[in-house]
Design a protein that fits this description.
heterotrimer, A alpha/beta (277), B mainly alpha (273), C alpha/beta (307), A: 277 residues, four-stranded antiparallel β-sheet, 40% helix, globular, B: 273 residues, mainly alpha, two-stranded antiparallel ribbon, 2 strands
Chain lengths: 277, 273, 307
């Protein structure tokens, strides 16, 4: 069964251009997919459509086999969680555990079960020592981890991160990507990571690039990164390591495209020092 | 980081802090009734003793408690002046038109001032010793019977809890916008009233827009976590009545009943039967 | 304008249970003409420091008068006096004209686009201009200044001036907000996380804009940033804040050689520094200034030498 499936979906915010145009896109269960695109490419619309926060103008959307439509929304949202962009605009309660409990309370779980879910969710995001902390005093990365825990408390099968790292500092970004990767590998949660940082897409099994509401590139992250010129036409900048690889090649050092610093150093070392010692 | 604390919660651990918020709310109501039953200074003195005991057990510094009066100082003075100058009595010291200073007027205005100070102080004791969150829980729990007449108490409680949690965020935002406009030469300090009002617009507009944007995003985040106002929800945190609360209940109830009885008895002495 | 801070300390909510020491004996000089970087975690005191520089946070005046302070305790020298000057402005004095200071020290806050308020872009940009000018400006003067400000931030006056700022794209909004600060041509421009929340291309454009401003309008630019790559590539010098103190103030070329020290502070290092460290482990020393271009150049040169 597919975790998410878009069949010929279109959507527009009013009379202007389409935010999403004839989109066909699917995510397998257990997969980790990165959705890339510059601001305004339609990638956030994709997240909101998946969860029924927006209703498509045309086409069909399925989440875990269920059509995403009014009568299924409750079930869909139980299984498809979204973490949003702004760390300050997602918490409903002031205290960490109360906020994590919110979703579980909404679906009417018994108290003991909610307690267990909070334990599980906070542990999964590494925030168990902050259980009684005041959310407004946490760092951005910690707030986003609480938001992830709040979604996890519903035990969803799919988790969508809608630019959840965009407002964080590098440390906070790493906190989030670490957590997400672990959830995918250990808890087997299907992950859709929407981002404009190409570096983050490296973690995914598969990456798609969106532009003007359409999917314009698709493949493994390594494959996507090797297509520099094409990425530039979609207003996506090459990550710095990509720039270095490219520059070195142009300077006559034959290194491959990689996003791994150690690997790049190894290749440079072989090439530079082979004759020097 | 600037720590935007709001309300007056004074974070120490004490017997009063630990008390069930519902109990504190009920005590407050009963205590206010007791204050209103007091007809003379003896009655107020009895009330004061109870308040001092509560303050002692709360470990909130007494100066901090008295500071609460500062906020209503104007009201206190206003009450005092009005009553001192407009009330006639048997022993008149000075009279001019409708203005009149009499012995009874002065005594009565002093009485009102004391009563007002007691009222403010006891209410602020509640906010000093109870976090806004547990206060909301307490109010929700006390209002529960209203669900019987179809008042959606839990939605009201959600609204209150979200408002409470957004206050620090919006306060921080206000501070940031104010600083940003100040850096552009827009200052609400100084200048006449018109100038001040004009200077507020560049702060208010971004703040309102931001509040709407946040509300929108929060709404989505709540929807995405299966919030449906019509559905029945469970509650993770239940207020629990502990043995401490039981002790608190007996001690508090005894004291307040004592004061009430004292005041009722005093009232009979006071009234010419 | 030279910025000098000596023994600067600051505590939020002093004498309360919420007291937070934000700055602890900070001594730092920023020379005129620098493109200065300030690095540190949230809560390291960097925002508090920059807000001092245009008087948004003021030195407590009572501190100077307190009689205890200058007195030396037994066997210990007197605590040194706090100094904070920006050009000819002495910020520790109560008599300082803070309005005049703010006109010459511009400050762009994080996510400045959220501070736009006026009905048109033109009006919003002109806000600071009107506030800071001592006489009433003619419409022509205002228009000329707004046009120049919009053009230097890379927007077309004719296209955006009459539009509502809320109808622009995110990147454009940020440019308008920056234009609203630099419209008075401040000599010092301070920006808190100017590229936060933008996509990589937007980030690059903002940094290019700042260099243009540095060349043409503002003598000194100070940026607060979490992004070490950004610091390495753009700044002449950078100060590292940690727990309210300045730990280092060095040019990036020497700062990022201290890989271990920075990591120990829980800070990141630029990708170029990571690569240099990885190469060093393999016996290859690359002495670069940690910009991408220089690194490539040095590595290529190294290959040439060995061949």
């Amino acid at each position: 069964m597919k975790a998410l499936e878009f069949r010929n979906v279109s959507f527009s915010y009013g009379k202007d251009a389409f935010a999403i145009r004839n989109l066909n896109f699917s995510v397998e269960e257990g997969e980790f997919v990165a959705v890339l695109g510059h601001n305004g490419s339609g990638k956030s619309t994709l997240a909101r459509l998946s969860d029924g926060l927006l209703e498509a103008d045309g086409g069909e959307i399925f989440a875990l086999g269920m059509p995403v439509e009014q009568k299924n929304l409750y079930e869909v949202r139980k299984n498809v969680g979204i973490v949003f962009q702004n760390p300050d605009n997602q918490a409903v309660a002031s205290i960490v555990e109360d906020d994590v409990a919110f979703g579980a309370e909404n679906v009417g779980l018994p108290r003991e079960e909610i307690g267990k879910r909070i334990d599980f969710a906070l542990k999964a995001v590494g925030m168990e020592t902050h259980r009684h902390a005041t959310i407004s005093r946490l760092s951005g990365g910690q707030k986003q981890r609480v938001a992830i825990a709040g979604v996890l408390a519903l035990k969803p099968k799919v988790m969508i991160l809608d630019e959840s790292t965009a407002m964080l500092d590098p440390r906070g970004r790493r906190e989030i990507t670490d957590v997400v990767l672990r959830l995918n590998k250990e808890e087997h949660i299907t992950v859709v990571l929407i981002t404009h940082f190409l570096e983050e897409a490296l973690l995914a099994d598969r990456a798609v690039v969106m532009n003007k509401g359409e999917i314009v590139m698709e493949g493994t992250p390594a494959d996507i990164f090797s297509r520099h010129e094409e990425l530039l036409t979609y207003n996506l900048a090459l990550p710095r390591i990509g720039q270095i690889c490219k520059g070195l090649r142009e300077g006559g050092i034959p290194v491959g495209d990689t996003l791994d610093v150690e690997k790049l150093a190894e290749e440079i070392a072989q090439c530079v020092s082979s004759r020097s010692i | 980081m600037k720590d935007v604390s709001f309300g007056q919660y004074y974070p120490v651990k004490s017997f009063v802090h630990n008390m069930d918020p519902r109990l504190k709310l009920l005590f407050l109501i009963a205590y206010i009734v007791a204050i209103f039953l007091a007809r003379n200074f003896y009655g107020l003195a009895a009330c004061l003793v109870v308040l001092l005991l509560a303050i002692a057990f709360s470990r909130v510094p007494i100066l901090k408690v008295l500071r609460a009066i500062r906020g209503v100082l104007f009201l206190v003075l206003f009450t005092a002046v009005i009553n001192a100058f407009f009330r006639t009595g048997e022993t008149v010291y000075w009279q001019y038109g409708i203005l009149c200073v009499s012995k009874e007027g002065i005594v009565f205005s002093a009485f009102l001032v004391c009563r007002l100070i007691l009222l403010v102080t006891c209410s602020s004791m509640l906010t000093y010793t109870t976090t806004p969150v547990s206060l909301t829980d307490g109010i929700e729990s006390l209002l529960k019977p209203l669900t019987w007449i179809k008042i959606p108490v839990h939605i009201l409680a959600d609204v209150m809890s979200i408002a409470l949690r957004m206050i620090p965020v919006l306060m921080e935002e206000t501070e940031r916008i104010r600083s940003a406009q100040k850096a552009r030469g827009g200052d609400i300090e100084g200048g006449g009233l018109i100038k001040k009002i004009r200077a507020v617009v560049p702060i208010l507009v971004p703040l309102i827009l931001s509040a709407f944007r946040r509300a929108d995003e929060l709404g989505d985040a709540m929807d995405a976590r299966c919030y449906m106002a019509s559905k029945k929800r469970t509650k993770y945190k239940k207020l629990r009545f502990t043995w401490r609360d039981l002790i608190g209940f007996f001690v508090g109830a005894a004291l307040i009943t004592g004061v009430v009885l004292f005041n009722v008895y005093e009232a009979f002495l006071w009234l010419p039967v | 304008m030279r910025i000098v801070a000596e023994h600067l300390s600051y505590t939020y909510n002093p004498k309360s249970p919420f007291a937070v020491k934000a700055l602890d004996d900070v001594t730092l000089t920023i020379e005129e003409g620098e493109f200065f970087g300030i690095i540190g975690h949230t809560g390291s005191g960097k925002s508090t420091f920059v807000q001092h520089l245009n008087g948004l946070i003021r030195l407590p005046a009572s501190k100077k008068r307190r009689p205890k302070r200058p007195k030396a305790k037994k066997g210990r020298p007197a605590p040194p006096a706090t100094v904070l000057t920006v050009g000819e402005f002495d910020l520790s004095s109560k008599k300082t004209d803070f309005r005049a200071l703010r006109k010459r020290v511009g400050m762009v806050f994080q996510y400045p686009e959220y501070q736009l308020f006026a009905e048109t872009v033109k009006e919003d940009v002109a806000y600071g201009l009107k506030n800071f000018s001592d006489k009433k400006l003619t419409p022509a003067e205002t228009e000329a200044a707004v046009r120049a400000a919009l053009e230097i931030v890379g927007l077309d006056y004719g296209e955006v001036a009459e539009k509502s700022p809320f109808d622009l794209s995110g990147g454009q909004k940020r440019r308008v907000a920056i234009a609203g600060v630099i419209v008075t041509k401040p000599e010092v421009l301070i920006l808190d996380e100017p590229a936060a929340g933008l996509d990589p291309l937007g980030k690059r454009e903002v940094m290019e804009l700042l260099h243009r401003l540095h060349r043409e309008w503002c003598k000194t630019v100070v940026i607060v940033s979490h992004d070490m790559d950004e610091i390495a590539e753009n700044c002449t010098r950078a100060a590292v804040f940690s727990e309210g103190r300045v730990v280092y103030a060095l040019p990036p070329a020497s700062l990022f050689k201290m890989t271990d020290e920075l990591l120990a502070l829980g800070l990141d290092i630029p990708l170029t520094a990571k690569l240099c460290a990885a190469l060093k482990e393999r016996g290859i020393e690359v002495d670069c200034d940690f910009t991408v271009e220089d690194l490539i150049r040095k590595v290529v040169a190294l290959k040439g030498e060995n061949a």
